[in-house]
Amino acid sequence: MPNSPPSRCGLCDGTTWAAQDEKVALCFKQMTCLVDQTRAASTSRRTLPVDSMSLQSSKNVLDGGWGWVIVVVCFVAQFLAYGSPQSVGILYPEWLHAFQEGKGMTAWVGSLVSGVGLIASPVCSACVDNFGARPVTIFSGVMVAGGLMLSAFAPNVQFLIFSYGIVVGLGCGLVYAATLTITCQYFDKRRGLALGIVTTGTSVGGFLYATAQNELILLFDLDGCLLIIGALALNLMACAGFMRPLNMPAYYLKQKAALERTEEQLFENPPADDLKTTPGASERTLTVKDLLIIIDAKDITTTNKKGGFMAGSAIVKIIKEKRQAYSKYMHSTADFLHNRNFMALCIAIFLFSLGAFPPVLFMEDVAQSEGLIDEVSIIPLVSIVAVTAGMGKLTLGILADVRWINSLFLYAFTLLGTGVALLLIPISRSYVGLQILSAVVGFFSGNWSLTSYITTKIVGLDKLTQAHGILMFFGGFGIVLGPPVVGCFFDWTQSYDLAFYFSGGSVLLGGVTLFLCALPWWDKKKADIDRFDIQYTSNCDKVASVA
């Protein structure tokens, strides 16, 4: 069609396709590059991991959606991990009969399995921050299952202390840190309810595992019971697959920053042929955390490029920066301990763990020692403690979300109730009385669902993992000391009366301490002092007279 106007291309500024061959090739190249850039940008958006959501999208998924899947998965994870440790009171008499050791020595197994994980909470929290909840849960599944299976071949109590107490305890600590951290990330307004449901998994696991372990011991002996329970714990790795994090962990961000830095170095001075075929890199929006990690990666890659004295000075510079970072971390830890409410909570949870955990371990042995029952009943006292603890976690979690209820006072009330129930156990001389008191102790022991909630209220969500790790360290230290101390009391007096008086007094002391420190008149007194200082320094005459 000779009369038709020539077609034009907007990229070549009016040049016709048929007129000049060189500009046609250039135009086609520009169009190809534009298509490749668009395709690369869309591909990068598609291949971007679903786990690394932006902060804006993370706000949209709070309190619903995939968060409820996280709640269910974390519930199952705590059920599988803590089922056997929470019902270790069923295994305790069997170990006493099998190894013929003292009650104080054998009690170390039950105390370590619950205390080691809490003592190592700062390390467990750091692992979750750096690697994410999913890899940590997979690794913890291997530890819990391996420790339980190793315990089936234990030749003595000392081996049990390592396999069941330390290995299983560390695995449980990793599960606990991972499940609580990812649950707090997915929930804001309903955080108390979500944490209550998640932590109920330990109680439901203790209730069902107590009866299951009792029946498995009758059918397959103690060794077969531990092997079967260990095989069930392998399902923790399946639970980890559903733990989709809202933000990429620090370890993956460092790897990503190092990779991007390497790509930048490769494309700094590319060959002429590569300029013809390689499209430009698309821009990405980085958060503050990404930028900090990229700066760290740039420092590391700079040291790799330099040699001799320059490389040594760069390494010294990085070491100084790391030391400053660790110094800031220690200062922030000291700031937590200077907080009156947080320090009172640490003391309270230490005294609560010191006094409230031993009854759970020794309750069945108390009933048998007093001659109230001949053997473990169909529904053991440990199961009663576990199921009422689950009810307590749900109830206390719901109450924590009520606006007019102070969570610190609520936690202090649970300590006071637990202490009174423990003091009444030596007075009770019937199995029904022990069942009622076990239910009361179990219900108030559900206050573990409040620890993350209260910690978030005191220090904020950004510092939750660090502060919660410190808090759990105090709790784990009390759990480790409690059962051996109570066992030594029994070996010394051949009676549990003095031991339970010690336990009840410790818990009561923790409740009174927290209640007094949480009173609002401390803040009012501090405000009055600050107001007095302001009025005094604002008066020029008084300042001049003092000078």
TrEMBL record:
Location relative to the cell: Membrane
Main location class: membrane
Organism name: Salmo salar (Atlantic salmon)
Range of residues in the leader sequence: none
Ion transport among keywords: no
Molecular function terms, GO-annotated: monocarboxylic acid transmembrane transporter activity
Protein name: Monocarboxylate transporter 9-like isoform X1
PANTHER family, per database record: MONOCARBOXYLATE TRANSPORTER, MONOCARBOXYLATE TRANSPORTER 9
A Pfam family it matches: MFS_1
Domain (Major facilitator superfamily (MFS) profile) ranges: 70-522
A cellular-component GO term for this protein: membrane
Keywords from the named record: Membrane, Transmembrane, Transmembrane helix
Superkingdom in the source lineage: Eukaryota
